[in-house]
Specification:
This protein is α/β, with parallel strands linked by helices. It has helices at about 15-25, 35-50, 60-70, 85-90, 95-100, 115-125, 150-165, 175-180, 220-230, 235-250, 250-275, 295-300, 325-340, and strands spanning about 5, 55-60, 80, 105, 135-140, 165-170, 195-200, 210-215, 275-280, 285-290, 305, 305-310, 315. Helix 7 (about 150-165) links the parallel strand 5 and strand 6. Helix 6 packs parallel to helix 7 and helix 11 (about 250-275) packs parallel to helix 13 (about 325-340). It is globular and about 60 Å long.
Length: about 350
C-alpha cells in the first residue's frame, strides 16, 4: 500500500495528543474521570464551544452517537437522520441496541445535508399506533459527503423539529474540519442542539470522542448509563489527555485546517490534471470522484487505498498527517489510470 486515503481513521495520533498522553501517564491519579486532566479537558471542550455543558469522554463515536440518541428517544420512538448518516449506514444497529428498539428514519438531501422540504414532510405526518413516532433529529457536521452546513442551514432544520418537541443530536466526528471551514462552534448550543458528539479520533486524538450535553436535564445518572454501556474508563485520563493536548495547543483546529487544505489541493489537481470529475463540493477534508470500476481497481492495484461510497463515487479522505507530496503523487496516479486504454471517457 502506497498510502491509505480510505479514511482519516487510518492516521495515527497527532504529536500534540501523544505528548499530552505521555504527560498524563506519569504518577498516580484518581480514577473514573475524577482526575485533573479530565477536568481540564472538559473545560477545554466547553471553552471551544463557548457554552456550559456536561462533558464525558468515551471510546468510540458509534457508542457516543447511540447513547446520545437513547437519551432523546424512547424504545418505541424514532430518530430522523439523513439516509447516508453514519447512524443509519455504519453503526450496525447500535442506536436501536443502546435505545432498546429506537428506530431510524432516513431523509433525503444533497451531499449528506438533510433537505428541509423532506424534513417538514415527515414532521407533518400524523402519528399512528403502527409506526414509531419521531422523537429526535440527528444531524452530521461535516456530513458523510464532506459538506459543511452553515449555521443558518442548521437553524432552519432545528427550529421546526424543536417546534414539534423533538430533541436534537449533532454527530461531530469531523467537527474540527467543519470549524476549519469556517463553521462557528459557538453557535451549536445557541441554535438548539441538545447533545453533541465532538470528534477526537479523526482529529488525531486517538480513540476518544467527547459526549457533550447542552441540555443538562439529560445528565442525571449519565455515569450509570455510561458504565452499563461499557463506556466508563477506569483510567479516563488516557482518553481525555489526547483531546486536551489538541485543544489546549490549538492543534485540534490547525491539524483539521491542514487536512482541509490537502483535500482542496487534491480536488484542484483532479479537476485540473485528470479526466475525472468531482461528485460533491469539497468543503472539508473529503474528496469524492466519479470513477469507473476499471480505473478504481487499477488505482487500488497500484497501492492507493480508497473505496467506493454508497452513491457510487470513490472517496478519498485527507487527514492531519497527509502531505503535499503524497497528494501530488495521488493526483499523478489518478491521471495515469484515467489514461488507461479502452476506458470509458469521463466528460466534464
Amino acid at each position: 500500500m502506497r498510502y491509505d486515503f480510505g479514511s482519516d481513521n487510518t492516521a495515527g495520533m497527532a504529536p500534540e495528543a501523544m505528548e499530552a498522553l505521555a504527560e498524563a501517564n506519569a504518577g498516580h491519579v484518581s480514577a473514573y474521570g475524577t482526575d485533573a486532566v479530565t477536568a481540564r479537558a472538559a473545560d477545554a471542550v466547553r471553552a471551544r464551544l463557548d457554552a456550559d455543558a456536561e462533558v464525558r469522554f468515551v471510546f468510540s463515536g458509534t457508542a457516543a452517537n447511540a447513547i446520545a440518541l437513547s437519551m432523546l428517544a424512547r424504545s418505541f420512538e424514532a430518530v430522523a437522520a439523513h439516509h447516508a448518516a453514519h447512524v443509519c449506514t455504519d453503526e450496525t444497529g447500535a442506536p436501536g441496541f443502546f435505545g432498546h428498539g429506537v428506530g431510524l428514519v432516513g431523509l433525503p438531501g444533497l451531499s449528506g445535508k438533510i433537505d428541509l422540504v423532506g424534513l417538514e414532510a415527515i414532521l407533518e405526518e400524523p402519528e399512528v399506533g403502527h409506526r414509531q413516532p419521531l422523537a429526535a433529529l440527528s444531524l452530521t457536521q461535516a456530513t458523510e459527503y464532506g459538506a459543511v452546513y452553515t449555521v443558518d442551514e442548521l437553524r432552519k432544520l432545528i427550529e421546526p423539529a424543536k417546534a414539534r418537541g423533538l430533541g436534537v443530536h449533532l454527530d461531530g466526528a469531523r467537527l474540527a474540519n467543519a470549524a476549519a471551514a469556517g463553521f462557528d462552534l459557538g453557535q451549536i448550543a445557541r441554535i438548539g442542539v441538545d447533545v453533541l458528539v465532538l470528534g477526537g479520533a479523526k482529529a488525531g486524538a486517538g480513540c476518544v470522542e467527547a459526549l457533550v450535553l447542552f441540555d443538562k436535564s439529560l445528565a442525571p445518572r449519565l455515569d450509570n448509563r455510561l458504565k452499563q454501556a461499557g463506556q466508563m474508563s477506569s483510567k479516563t485520563r488516557m482518553l481525555s489527555a489526547p483531546m486536551l493536548g489538541l485543544l489546549e495547543s490549538g492543534a485540534w483546529d490547525d491539524r483539521a485546517a491542514h487536512a482541509n487544505l490537502m483535500a482542496q489541493r487534491l480536488a484542484d489537481g483532479i479537476e485540473g490534471a485528470t479526466r475525472f470529475v468531482l461528485a460533491h463540493p469539497v468543503d472539508a477534508n473529503i474528496v469524492f470522484v466519479r470513477m469507473p470500476e476499471e480505473a478504481h481497481a487499477a488505482l487500488r492495484g497500484a497501492g492507493w487505498a480508497c473505496y467506493r461510497f454508497d452513491d457510487g463515487s470513490v472517496r478519498f479522505v485527507c487527514s492531519w498527517s497527509t502531505t503535499e507530496a503524497t497528494v501530488d503523487e495521488l493526483i499523478a496516479a489518478i491521471g495515469a489510470v484515467g489514461d488507461t486504454p479502452g476506458e470509458t471517457p469521463v466528460h466534464h
